[in-house]
Design goal:
Jelly Rolls, 277 residues, three-stranded antiparallel sheet, alpha+beta, seven-stranded mixed sheet
Length: 277
């Protein structure tokens, strides 16, 4: 019997290709999503920040246990690693997000841009859905999509992301058996794309190497994101970014009037885009 695995798409795949496979399996791996020059530049930009990072310390023991006390995480990437802007506005991730989230929201916003460096000896996370961050929301559609891009070659022994294919269709309280979970082997530059309602977890790092990846998540525009981009990204930086990046960072009025909703995110009763001009 063939072992469980996620489908892999070529580097030239489209957002529609990603949507189609993710609808079936909950997630898909895109080979070569980050080009070699972009990967090299991004790694060079984050290296100084990782070197001075002292480890997980959110102020909450429960949060730190979940995030991993032997794991280094870096946000505010639009400032610390400017190459991240090109990653964030890539047509494939934006198109994937807009299509998957369209039934529950007319616009999208960056949920998080986060480097995750899992050091040797880190334990595995519990299996979870990213949608659980908004546990009071009562919807049947994903609230976000996420990507895990390998910044180095990632193997199961290093803590490769664990995924339960098809779990986006399960009952919410179903726990996956071991034979229903796959560890995503990711060559550097490849990325796991998955829906917010798919069960997954960071694996245990049983190797002597660092498992370094980039998580880029996008959620519905009416949600409060995991990352506070307003405090992580100075407005002086936002002003010089492409329009699409500005919108993903929250500098756009949320307008759901065409679908019977309202407006969110006013600045002084006006569109926050005006702050950037």
């Amino acid at each position: 019997m063939r072992s469980l695995e996620l489908e892999r798409l070529p580097p030239d795949c489209t957002a529609n290709d990603i949507v189609e496979v993710a609808e079936k399996d909950g997630g898909v791996i895109v080979e070569g999503w980050l080009s070699p020059p972009l990967l090299l530049q991004f790694n060079a930009e984050i290296e100084p920040w990782l070197a001075q990072h002292k480890g997980t310390n959110s102020g909450s023991d429960a949060s730190d246990d979940f995030l991993g006390k032997k794991t280094r995480r870096i946000q505010g990437l639009t400032v610390k690693a400017p190459t991240f802007v090109d990653i964030m506005i890539d047509n494939r991730i934006v198109g994937f997000a807009e299509t998957v989230l369209a039934p529950v929201g007319p616009s999208i916003i960056l949920n998080n841009g986060e480097v995750i460096d899992i050091r040797p000896g880190e334990s595995a996370q519990p299996m979870h859905r990213d949608d659980d961050a908004w546990n009071f929301a009562n919807v049947t559609n994903p609230l976000m999509i996420n990507t895990i891009a390998a910044l180095v070659d990632i193997t199961p022994a290093m803590g490769a992301t664990l995924v339960a294919p098809g779990s986006h269709r399960w009952e919410r309280d179903r726990v996956p058996a071991k034979n229903e979970i796959v560890a995503c082997d990711l060559p550097a530059g490849s990325a796991l794309f998955f829906r917010g309602d798919t069960l997954h977890a960071g694996g245990a790092n049983k190797s002597t190497k660092h498992r370094r990846a980039l998580s880029t998540g996008i959620c519905c525009g009416w949600l409060r994101p995991v990352e506070n981009s307003y405090t992580n990204t100075p407005i002086e930086v936002v002003r010089i970014l492409p329009l699409r990046a500005q919108e993903l960072l929250g500098y756009a009025l949320y307008d759901a009037s065409e679908v019977g909703g309202g407006y969110l995110g006013y600045h002084d009763m006006s569109d926050p885009k005006k702050l950037l001009t």
